[in-house]
Each structure stands twice: as structure tokens, then as C-alpha cells.
Amino acid sequence: xxxxxxxxxxxxxxxxxxxxxxxxxxxxxxxxxxxxxxxxxxxxxxxxxxxxxxxxxxxxxxxxxxxxxxxxxxxxxxxxxxxxxxxxxxxxxxxxxxxxxxxxxxxxxxxxxxxxxxxxxxxxxxxxxxxxxxxxxxxxxxxxxxxxxxxxxxxxxxxxxxxxxxxxxxxxxxxxxxxxxxxxxxxxxxxxxxxxxxxxxxxxxxxxxxxxxxxxxxxxxxxxxxxxxxxxxxxxxxxxxxxxxxxxxxxxxxxxxxxxxxxxxxxxxxxxxxxxxxxxxxxxxxxxxxxxxxxxxxxxxxxxxxxxxxxxxxxxxxxxxxx
Amino acid sequence: xxxxxxxxxxxxxxxxxxxxxxxxxxxxxxxxxxxxxxxxxxxxxxxxxxxxxxxxxxxxxxxxxxxxxxxxxxxxxxxxxxxxxxxxxxxxxxxxxxxxxxxxxxxxxxxxxxxxxxxxxxxxxxxxxxxxxxxxxxxxxxxxxxxxxxxxxxxxxxxxxxxxxxxxxxxxxxxxxxxxxxxxxxxxxxxxxxxxxxxxxxxxxxxxxxxxxxxxxxxxxxxxxxxxxxxxxxxxxxxxxxxxxxxxxxxxxxxxxxxxxxxxxxxxxxxxxxxxxxxxxxxxxxxxxxxxxxxxxxxxxxxxxxxxxxxxxxxxxxxxxxx
Lengths: 323, 323
Fold this sequence. Notes:
homodimer, about 325 residues, alpha/beta, Rossmann fold, 6-phosphogluconate dehydrogenase C-terminal fold, 6-stranded parallel sheet, 12 helices, disordered C terminus
């Protein structure tokens, strides 16, 4: 996957972008905006003074402040980069201070509940266009971000029915400027699709790592030592930010419970096949899954390198390797 | 993680190693043995003529044959690199042809059932020492192997109580020659530990990929498109060899069902927390899991690079990145 973002814009899309929350996503946005010249200026807003300090030290923004209300005043785009549970309370604080014709957006992994929590606090002259870039790593904080995080990833926009199209298009241009591909969806559909492609996988990963840590028959040091057998793969997403993910599950309850129900049903079938020695059911289930990975690789959403490229089989010193 | 295997041996440990099954593991062994000079000669044995053809073309062995009985005759080490369900039938075929004092080993992911299936077919003059290198990728076949696959990975040996220690030590030297760290364990303990670090994770991954593929409310193309949200991680181990994994579950039934029971119990707790909006339980569960990944990284069993290093945040062209 190429990591090149291309040429920066000659004329920025926005005068001043306000980023609220300078974690992995917010700080990646700041870096990307600067690098691609998407705005004349950036205001970085974070309630945590230590984060503000790092943002200043890393020179990621033109203005750095802990005060959201004053910080958003002269911005024509404001993006909430906080856990979804914090979006409503923040909207209440900044709503009265947003300038006319300002675009307000977010990056939350859940959309319906964010819309419900944010909209009541916004004046009519603000354009609220929710967004969700499907990108991330297991690291958090302003030091974890990087400008290419969104490159070749999907960003889902869920504009309301009465959106001003030129504003939605402007936000689309912004995300495409960061290298993302933009997809339109309703908030409800977004929440259903992401429940299976993101929320359920995180829940399962958190759960299996927790189960392994709690066993009394196998020690934690054995689990760690022999984790290369498959377990370690799950620890990556189970190392994701706990606050962010608590809020995701609290705010997408219905879709997650539906997907979890399917998962548990299917697992019961495999459990029964193991108990009764039904090799055919196991083999058939295990055979269907290779094709899906191949499609993900073909669509450029995954590397084809063995083991995620964690180690290089293209061992230059081994003449027998013909890859 | 360094990929260097060090200096090849001056004097090989074995006269001739017979490898039965030239898939990912068998072909990695062949490449490693040659590279590190662990044997004077290699006999590659595979029932599949196409595999034999590839092994010859890749020049991985001195002798290539489809006939296991004659192939093992002059070997002082024979390693079964086949799905665990095939070990018993193979032992029956080769048992009468193994030379006196020969070491017979395997690489199976399950140990107790392999011992039960293999031992009855062996003459007294053969030393059967089961082994399991905890290493692999999601690819299969003779082209997928590489000489450094076992480097810095654990290889678990489960010798019987009456083992001739010098023979067990020789097998230990062999695996260490391939760069592996050797651990001793009983077959029963192995099966319990690997049930949680390898077998359960594979079952869960196969299951979630299957669940996602079967949904009628979300299309398969949506699942593939937005898989970077977490789902794609699971597709890697769910792309593993179906025959190998069918046999694992059929042959480690008790331990897998026990671990699966724990997993399901814990998942019910999270499900309840989501349903009742219990953010504290979710947050506490999600907080404990970061430390485990850190330990795995510290022990050299995982990369610290974000996202498994799939993309490089150390973006040289981005001056704001300070990593």
C-alpha cells in the first residue's frame, strides 16, 4: 500500500479548522491538514493540559487552547475528535459560539446517537455533517498520530436529509485531501454495518484476552509466551482506548446485541460440531473464510504479506526463497 | 525482531532427515535445515505429486519421493509435518521401516492424541519425541515456507517419561539450530495451554468471519469494504489451512470445549453490561487488556509497531512525526 498523499493544495479549503481532542485521530488530522495545506490555520482544543503541551511541542497547530467555547469562534470547520459519549456535552458548550455557516463534524464510530446528542444544541446557521473515518491503530494520544493514517481508508459521511450539498461536498473534498475514499450512508445504516466490521470484532477481542488473563489452569506467563499461536493477533485491537470503546458499546447497543446474537448462535454450532466430532461442519466453515480475506486484500484494505508482514519471508539471505 | 539465524553448523547433527509433508512447516524445515547445515541430506516425502514437483523445482531436498515407507529407511530423524489426524495412519505405514535408534518427531498443534495414535505402531528401537513449533503464517504449501519461520519462536517438546535424554537433547539442538527456543512440557499440559493461546483464537476468528459472511442485513461487499475497522485482523487466522484446523479441534476436544465455555461465560457478562448500559464493567474489562499486549511485545513475541507495522507511521516525509 503506497503511503504517498500526493501534492498539497495550492489554495486551502478552510480558513481555520478547529480540532477538539488531540488524540490519535485529532493529531493525525492536524498533521494531515498541515501537510496537505487543507486550511490556513488550525486551532487545537483539548481539555487536558498535558495534551496541549505536547501539541505545542510538536508544533501541530497555530493556536492551542483548553477552552472550547472561545477556541471554535473563528473556525469555519470544527471537528469533534472525542469519545462519542463526550460529543453531546461538548456541543452544548460550543453551540452558541459557532460562527454562521460553520461546518461541524465528528469522527465517532457511532453515528445515530451522536446526531441525537449533538443536534439539539446547534443553532440553525451551523451545518452538522457527521463523519467516521474507518482508520486507526491501537495507540492513543497526540504522539500516536501520523499524517497518512487516513490514506486509502474509507471515510463514511452521514449528512442529514436537509443538508446543504455544497457543504457536504466541501467536507468530502477535505477527507479526500487526506487521502481517504468517501462513502455516503444514513446514520442508521452506518451503525449496523460498523457493528459487524468493527464493534463486534473489538468486543470479541477484548473478551478473549480477558478470558485468557483470568484462567486459573493456565498461567498468564504461559499465555504470553505461547501467544504466537494466534492469541497475540487479538491483543492488538484489545489494546485500543478503553474510554472510546466503552462509549461505542453504550451508544450502539441495539446493533451490537443483534450481531452478538448471530455470533453466539454460530459459535454454538461449531461447539456442537467439536463435541460430536463432526469434521465436515468444521471443514466447511473453515473453507469459506479464505475467500473473504482475499477480497479484502484485492480491495487494498489489507496487506497480502504473510503474518501482516510482521516478519519478512522475503529473506534475502535465503537463496531457496523464490517469492 | 532480527531475522538472522547466525552461522551454519560446521558438523551436521543428522545424516539424513526425512520430512513427511512439505507444506508451510515442512518446507520451512527443509529450507532451514539446508541453510543451517543441520543434516547431510534431506529426504522430502509427500503424497501429492504436485507438491513433490514444486519441492524438486525449488531444490529443497536431496531426495524427493511419494513413497513414505521407502523414503524413511535411511533417515536418523523423521518429522511428520502433516495434519494431526494423518499422523497415526502414517506411523502405521512407516513404523516397520524406521531404522534402529531413529528419532521420530512431529510438528502437530495437538500432542496427547498424536501420541496415542502414533506410539502403538512404533518398534521399540525408535525414539518418539513429539514437538510443536508455535509458528506459522496463514499461507500453505511448499512455496509458503521460509527458513526463518522458527526464529525466536517457541518449540515445545513433549518427550515421554522413559525418553533417552541424549536423543531429546539432540532434537533440542536441532530446533535451536533453526533459531527456536525450546520448552519442555507434558503432552497434556501442552494441549491445555495451546487450547487458549492458539485453538480458541482460531475457532473465534473462523466463527466471526463466518457470521459476517452470512448476514442478510449487511452485504458481504460492505463487510469487505469497511473491514479496516477491526474485522480484517480476524480474517488472517481465519485464512489458515482448513484440514489442519479441523483435525486440531477433533483431537483436542476436551480442552477446547473447556476454554470455549469460559469464553462464552465472559462474553455473556459483557453482553449484559451492554444491554443494561453498565459502562463501568465495560471500561474495567477494556483497561486490563493493554498490559497483556505490552508483555507479549516485551518478550519479543510481537512487534511494537502500530497496526502490526502494516503501514509505516514513521513517515519520513512528514516532519511533524517525531517517533
